[in-house]
């Protein structure tokens, strides 16, 4: 972060209604009001640099009362000179001060960067929509760049009329737009054997939520005709790793879509541009990217990605296939290891987080400050939609004593997120996928936040 | 667009389940099926290059039946070699093939590029969420770059406790996330005197829709105390043009927010980073960007931006102040001048568009193909939320005869979008703001689409 010039004199701040002028005005207010302000104002005092973690190294203490020293440490030049041309960015970017808000990688996690995972920085996000530039990615053979004019989709097998569609053919079918969560089966997967990295971005950064637009597969199949003996669909992508999966016909005819837009604009290359399969509430890996064909047949293909991988190991050593949808899950996003309470004033403070379920609508989220002994219901602070990320928040009183913070989501199927102990009992500690145990953040008395497991 | 190599032989396409292999398989299907396909397949035939306008110059006709010529014109190399590294973009960007999907400017519209307008490319968008990089912009003195650690907000005047907040102070208050449309009062403003530019992006590109996160002003005022005699709020921004507006206290206490995030991430600089005022359903100009202070007082300030500008001229020559909220409005996004039906096969075709209202929820949208003589109700194809953009679509049968396409939105206040004739009668032709007349797109028999006005 480049520091601004320090040699601008406060007296130069002659803009009407400048902070300097109004600060002087406040100085004239009666002594009692100023005392009140002095007393109450401290409630929101916070070490901004710590809380904005990573933006800059400057320690900056909010001032407890209004006087000229309350001005920013460097007299800002904004508002005193023309800004940048408004046409400088035909496609806009975040502020340079947000350069730290990015997807992150764990280099040793995969054999190479073609098959890598990038994680969504939930510690920096608000609301439920994840901007496309920050949606987590998982590729098996690198990001494929497809020319949309040359893209084709073959639909064949047990259909009445086999077709090869261009992108514009596909776009002539009626489309719908739906807001849904999207989660990789391996989200939280590094936590099976015990606490993994001390990072919300890594523990829960493989879930996102977007508005998806595309054509319901049902619509296409009504047009070209599906033979009654078709029980499975095999979507295959133009992935150099040869990625395909078997999808049961019930899901295909329920809410499967061929999507080509995401949060309004075209799918991003790393999400399958120009067209991917979308199966609301199901694990990401089955939602084939860079789609090139759909084959309909009588039985499952038992391919690598559904027989040796993406199966769920149980505590008895057996593995279960076909664990497609993700169950109710939640995590606290503030505080978290990356957004701790170091330097934060004690007292009332907001704890907030995200909850989601691939099976239905989140009906309530409870929060515990004592590792699950006592629970209080949080409030929803966003729209609540089926199979979508939902925001929750609750005010807690932090007296500076250590806390064991947890959140626990319930969806409208009646399912409640399990404890780590319950999950280990059912599935052991050697699994990879679909880990949705209650997450514990240990808050130390100095405000530090750590990823811990409680198996008691 | 770089053309791919042409010298790869089809026989080299040995990937399992390649389009080439499967095409051969289809060639083996009985003659009758192939004839059916030949007959029905043509329904979706379209000149892809024309429909994808601007992406590439290659004319590319979808094939009416499946054979090896059905392969893309150049044998694609995707899927045959490793893709790009997955960690190449920590903050991701659209595909290079989408380089044409950008905000656009009309250079002569404003005196210089500090006070310019950029327009959202609705002709390229789907769903209701507009990606932040494509949200229209309107600045009065250029884009201001504020250091969030140095940003301060002064709240003063008729409050019990005057405060200066840092960004982290503000973020300690509980936040909410809401999905709402955002519209400039001048959207469609170039249409008052007659048809303006032949472009959806210009006629209706100053409306967008996002998920906004911030603190309800009510929450802050409950904390610091609002004096009963406070009737107006004056928000002022760090805009070099000195931009502020008077906001009645009723709106402040209803749903006004101080927002710091937009579609999950921090506000973009051109949208007021780090904090702007947000007033759901009201014209954009009053939602002050780069906020530096809020003053509470007994009466309106009658500043330039609410007395000489942003007033509504009536047909009797008088101008009305305080026309804050935008009324029900709609426009067809496909087809439109930029996304015509040139080269598109006649027959059933989807007409789609967006509707929005600052006063409530869209309850229905009607579509006419004959300039408003007959109407048919369209279907909603997205989530329908109050004060938000809503998607609609309807299938029409295009027989190649000219059409006068219109859409007409109604909201839950009972208000219906007026015709151009009704609007001219009420407000003349010399106005600038809040034009929400029914838009007419003339579809010529060659598929060309033009912006026309019907005053009959």
Helix fraction bin of chain A: 10-25%
The span between the termini of chain A is: 45 Å
Strand order of the largest sheet of chain A: 5-4-13-8-9
> How would a crystallographer describe the biggest sheet of chain A?
5 strands, mixed
Report the oligomer: homodimer
Can you tell me the overall shape of chain A?
globular
* DSSP, total strands of chain A: 24
Q: Compute the gyration radius of chain A: what is it?
A: 26 Å
**Helix/sheet category of chain A:** alpha+beta
Low-pLDDT windows of residues of chain A: 1-70
* Biggest interchain interface, per-side counts: A-B, 154 and 154 residues
Approximately what portion of the residues of chain A adopt beta-strand conformation?
Answer: 25-35%
The number of helical runs of chain A is 9
* Average pLDDT reading of chain A: 85
Kindly describe this structure.
Chain A has nine helices and 24 strands. By secondary structure, chain A is an alpha+beta fold. A five-stranded mixed sheet of chain A has the order 5-4-13-8-9. In chain A, strands 6, 7, 10, 11 and 12 form a five-stranded antiparallel sheet that branches. A five-stranded antiparallel sheet of chain A has the order 19-18-22-23-24, with no helix packed on it. Chain A is globular and about 70 Å long. Chain A starts with 18 loop residues before the first helix and ends with a strand. The N terminus of chain A is likely disordered.
Question: What is the fold's blueprint, element by element?
Answer:
2 copies of one chain form a homodimer.
Chain A: H1 19-27, H2 31-41, H3 48-51, E1 104-105, E2 117-119, E3 137-138, E4 153-157, E5 163-165, H4 167-172, E6 176-183, H5 200-204, E7 207-216, H6 217-224, E8 232-237, E9 247-248, H7 249-254, E10 257-262, E11 265-266, E12 276-278, E13 291-297, H8 304-307, E14 312-313, E15 319-320, E16 329-334, E17 347-356, E18 362-368, E19 376-377, E20 379-380, E21 390-398, E22 403-411, H9 420-427, E23 440-443, E24 449-452
Parallel strand pairs in A: 4-13
Antiparallel strand pairs in A: 1-2, 2-3, 4-5, 6-7, 7-10, 8-9, 8-13, 10-11, 10-12, 14-15, 16-17, 17-21, 18-19, 18-22, 20-21, 22-23, 23-24
